[in-house]
Design brief:
The complex is a heterodimer of chains A (839) and B (113).
Chain A (H helix, E strand, L loop, with lengths): L1 H11 L1 H21 L8 H10 L4 H19 L1 H30 L10 E7 L4 E2 L4 H10 L3 E13 L8 E6 L3 H5 L5 E2 L12 E4 L1 H8 L9 E4 L2 E8 L14 E4 L3 H4 L16 E6 L5 H18 L9 E6 L8 H35 L1 H9 L4 H37 L12 H27 L7 H33 L9 E5 L9 H17 L3 E7 L12 E5 L2 E10 L3 H4 L4 E4 L9 E5 H7 L9 E3 L7 E8 L13 E6 L9 E6 L7 H11 L6 E4 H44 L1 H9 L4 H30 L15 H27 L3 H7 L1
Chain B lengths: L15 H9 L4 E2 H11 L8 H14 L2 E7 L5 E7 L1 H27 L1
Antiparallel strand pairs in B: 1-3, 2-3
Helix pairs in contact in B: 1-2
The chains are: A alpha+beta (839), B alpha+beta (113).
């Protein structure tokens, strides 16, 4: 400790101590001279050796190198600005991607003790469900010792607020939710009632309070109406409220009062299978997630004895860390890895580009380097000096990239209306990431050139060609991926999806939420269908169990067909469904009223299951229990309504049965724009039963929402591709210009001797042909391998789609050609006499 | 930047700190006097090279075995005197007993051979 302290003391007072040391040595020399000895060594050298004992020589050399590098960089501002710009783009793209990932998956939420929050989900070998039945959660809450608190949240269809046209988003939560998160109200209290029969209460979000009530503080204690049910506003959430799993809402309601707001709901008592409650918990101090899962497994088995229908075979509960914005699912990691790979490619393009520039500069600095070598600098020292220069450049570029990324993050957060606690200011994770990237960048673009120059081999072409090739390969991967995505988006937007959605709207009356039984549902739906059909402009009305292209669950089953797993999307529908959705009936017939144990399958399904045979009259098992054997009565066209992105999806349709009528939604095909009819339809539904608050949407808006994600991804990847090629273009222009300037004399002589201009151009560009060709081939190969991971985004086209590959490569080669034109033209306009004279 | 030459010490390199500790034992001395005293005490066998003396002194300062104080030389010039610290004294004792043990061992080997 003492020694370290003294070392720093020496660093801080090095000037005074150096003078003292100098004095010592000076005195020694005087005394030796006086004693008659004349062979005293080099005093300066002696001083340096003595100072080396302080252990700060490396720092002094580093500072010396940095000062030198700074002078060199300031001496060529054109190069420095270009380099910083290229690096800022490359680093900025990476830092931005990481910042987003950080906000979503790494940064703990600003809530009390975020580390101990876990999300608990249901699993069994056959089933994966994020939510649980309320009864189960309450049982775990009561009995689990490893959990110090259990919280519930549940999303619900939007509700009518007062008489507003615009419905509000709502979320039901347990009474301890806000207290457990440590949320402090902006106004009033957040203490929701802990029992069912308390007076109904609601909490409003800050944004909703501002927008709807203009921030009026007298809102506390006022009565508002949700779905026409009166309730008292008790508090306002803070502006920077951090919500678990990123599911923000306008209005927050106590889950215990859900049956009051949704009349007839059996949520709190239902012991059938299923359930929509998200379970969150706080681990008791010192408890590991494993221990909690173990205890919950025991409790699940107890629960099965109480309610056999509630628990699946081999059911267990798994825990996920819950204290950050989003519970990461495996497919999200896949997306994150894909984005990470793409932005890393940008970095590779930037670095190889800069590496090429550095090498070209190395030739310009040949003179300087050889002087330094001849006055005694060794390779190591020159390498260190050059690498310090790269490090300085990398740091400046990263700093610019960090600033750029902050700006982009700020714009992104504003544009996407992100939660207020999310900040564009980088935290320590982002800073550490940036520092890491800086080192990586310096090594990527600085190491090889510094090594070559230090060994005075800068005229060798090979390394430069490798850099060009790599650059080309990375750019071509980005461009081809962008082309694939553009083609896929195009396919989704402009190809017939196999069903008509433009003129269809759907109504989910939510009969099951309000306790309708089969008979009541049938009566209600018959009446509704009659009333809707009578409206002018309605062409046909049908029933569908799946909410099509709207909010709602997608049911799919994975089955083995001839040993290969395929995903089947089943739907229970009535006979009018196919007509209403414009799905062509290819063979056989549609359902008859009241029919059971028959199936209609899609064209692809039939072709996969019974290749080359007539599917009509074939039979198949409806489920694993093997007590329902169905007969195929019809074949319809493929219509991936529930899986727009899955070209391999297969559909099966079952006739609607009385027991699932309560969960049915109604679909309506209109002659004109369905948007005009929504209000009319709402009036019809409500006039039949004022208790109901139907959810009504046009399929077109649902379809747009579904494809929006794809469009966004395409835009982002397209932008990345553009970035990559613009960097590559800068690099190519620089390199061609450079190699032209190097060969001015040769070109001038050739021209003077009457060589054809085209021939001269070919000679100059010949050296770039091989690396470009090899780079393009490597890029195509790499994309072919990597694009397999993209398949989920590639709607309707294969990942080896030749058009995309040709287009991507062609754009790149064209761009290279265009960037080479300017410097080559300059070469051809040479003033022969002057350049020969100069040389 | 020149690479440091490998110095040809006229004094065994490892022994120099110990010798310095020994000559400072009897009181503070400046650098030149340290070299002189070692030379004299060794009956003019050992000569301390200046190129080695000052780096060694710097290392000993860092380790806290000696401190430097301003004083006036016999030629009436301001110069730093090096003085043993209590830690330096302890170090000297430890070095001395180590040295005795090792040289005794070497002597035994040489005489049995």
């Amino acid at each position: 400790m003492g020694e370290l302290f003294r070392r720093f003391h020496y660093l801080l007072h090095r000037n005074r101590l150096q003078r003292e040391l100098q004095n010592d040595i000076e005195f020694h020399r005087e005394m030796s001279a006086r004693a008659g000895s004349s062979n005293f060594g080099n005093a300066l050298r002696m001083q340096e050796q003595a100072r080396e004992a302080w252990g700060w020589m490396w720092l002094e050399r580093l500072m010396q190198d940095l000062r030198y590098a700074w002078r060199i960089l300031r001496g060529s501002p054109g190069f420095t600005v270009t380099a910083i710009l290229v690096l800022a783009i490359g680093v900025g793209a990476n830092v931005t991607a990481f910042s987003l990932f950080n906000l979503i998956a790494l940064k703990p939420l600003p809530i009390r003790d975020p580390e101990s929050i876990v999300r608990l989900e249901r699993r069994s070998p056959e089933n994966i469900t994020p939510t649980l039945p309320f009864v189960s959660v309450e049982f775990y809450r009561e009995h689990a010792r490893t959990l110090s608190a259990v919280m519930e949240t549940m999303g619900a269809p939007a509700m009518e607020f007062e008489q507003d046209m615009q419905p509000v988003s709502v979320r039901f939560v347990s009474s301890n939710y806000f207290a457990e998160l440590g949320t402090r109200s902006a106004l009033g209290s957040l203490q929701l009632p802990p029992e069912r029969n308390a007076p109904p209460m609601v909490v409003l979000s800050y944004g909703f309070w501002q927008a709807r009530f203009g921030g009026d503080p007298s809102i506390i204690g006022r009565t508002v109406h949700l779905n026409k049910k009166p309730a008292t506003v008790i508090g306002i959430l803070p502006e920077d409220f951090a919500v678990l799993d990123g599911s923000d809402s306008d209005v927050w309601l106590p889950i215990l009062q859900q049956p009051y707001f949704v009349e007839g709901s059996k949520l709190l008592t239902d012991t059938g299978s299923g359930g929509d409650v998200a379970m969150w918990a706080r681990l008791a101090p010192g408890v590991t997630p494993r221990a909690a899962e173990q205890e919950l497994l025991g409790l699940t088995n107890q629960l099965r004895k109480l309610y056999p229908k509630l628990i699946w075979d081999n059911e267990y509960i798994i825990s996920e860390p819950g204290g950050h914005n989003t519970i990461m699912r495996p497919e999200m990691y896949e997306i994150a890895a894909m984005v990470g790979g793409l932005v890393l490619l940008i970095l590779v393009v930037a670095c190889t580009n800069l590496g090429g520039l550095m090498m070209a500069r190395g030739i310009a600095r040949e003179h300087e380097i050889s002087i330094r070598v001849s006055i005694g600098a060794n390779r190591q020292r020159i390498f260190r000096q050059l690498f310090t220069e790269s490090l300085l450049l990398a740091s400046l570029g990263s700093l610019a990239g960090l600033a750029l990324s902050c700006l982009v993050m700020r714009l992104t957060l504003t544009a996407t209306d992100a939660p207020r606690w999310m900040s564009s200011i980088p935290d320590w994770r982002v800073l550490a990431f940036t520092a890491g990237i800086t080192g990586l960048v310096a090594i990527l673009f600085g190491f090889a050139p510094a090594w070559q120059i230090a060994r005075q081999r800068q005229r060798r072409n090979f390394a430069r060609q490798v850099l060009i090739g790599t650059q080309l390969a990375a750019s071509s991967v980005l461009l081809i991926v962008a082309a694939l995505l553009v083609r896929a988006t195009h396919h989704v937007l402009y190809t017939d999806p196999g069903f008509g959605y433009e003129q269809v709207f759907s109504i989910a009356p939510g009969l099951d939420n309000h306790g309708y039984d089969a008979a009541k549902s049938r009566a209600y739906l018959d009446q509704l269908k009659t009333r809707l059909s009578a409206l002018p402009g309605v062409q046909s009305v049908a029933l569908s169990q799946m909410a099509l292209l709207g909010n709602g669950v997608t049911a799919s089953m994975s089955v083995l067909l001839h040993g290969k797993p395929v995903t089947i999307y089943p739907n229970s529908v009535d006979a009018a469904f196919f007509r209403t959705m414009d799905i062509p009936l290819l063979r056989g017939r549609t359902f008859l009223p009241g029919e059971k144990d028959v199936d209609i399958v899609s064209e692809s399904f039939a072709a996969r299951q019974w290749p080359g045979e007539d599917p009509l009259g074939k039979s198949m098992w409806r489920d694993d229990s093997k007590n329902n054997k169905d007969v195929i009565v019809g074949v319809v066209g493929d219509a991936h309504i529930k899986a727009l992105n899955d070209t391999d999806a297969l559909e099966a349709y079952w006739p609607a049965q009385p027991e699932n009528l309560a969960g049915m939604s109604v679909i309506v095909k209109t002659a004109g724009d369905p948007g005009q009819m929504l209000q009319q339809a709402k009036t019809v539904v409500e006039s039949l039963d004022p208790k109901l608050f139907p959810y009504i949407w046009t399929l077109k808006s649902g379809f747009r929402k579904n494809t929006k994600q794809l469009e966004d991804i395409t835009t982002i990847v397209g932008l990345l591709g553009m970035l990559a090629i613009s960097i590559a273009a800068i690099g190519i222009i620089g390199l061609v210009a450079y190699s032209v300037s190097q060969r001015t004399k040769e070109i001038a002589i050739r021209l003077a001797l009457g060589a054809k201009r085209l021939h001269v151009v070919a000679t100059v560009l010949k050296q770039f042909c091989w690396p470009i060709a090899l780079g393009a081939i490597a890029g195509v190969g790499a994309t072919a391998v990597v694009s397999r991971f993209l398949r989920r985004f590639l709607f309707g086209i294969g990942n080896l789609d030749p058009i995309s590959y040709v287009a991507g490569t062609a754009i790149l080669i064209m761009l290279i050609g265009v960037s080479a034109v300017a410097p080559v033209r300059r070469a051809l306009r040479l003033d022969l006499a002057r350049s020969l004279h100069y040389e | 930047m020149p690479m440091p030459d490998t110095p040809k010490p006229k004094t065994p390199q490892g022994a120099l700190p110990m010798l310095i500790l020994r000559v400072l034992h009897s009181g503070p001395l400046h650098g030149y006097a340290i070299a002189q005293r070692i030379h004299v005490l060794s009956s003019e066998v050992l000569a301390v090279e200046e190129g080695l003396l000052y780096p060694t002194l710097q290392k000993m300062l860092l380790k806290g075995w000696v401190t430097a104080e301003w004083g006036i030389s016999e030629t009436n010039r301001k110069v730093r005197f090096y003085k043993l610290t209590p830690e330096g004294r302890r170090q000297f004792k430890a070095d001395l007993s180590d040295y005795d043990r090792v040289s005794e061992a070497i002597r035994t080997i040489l005489h049995t051979a």
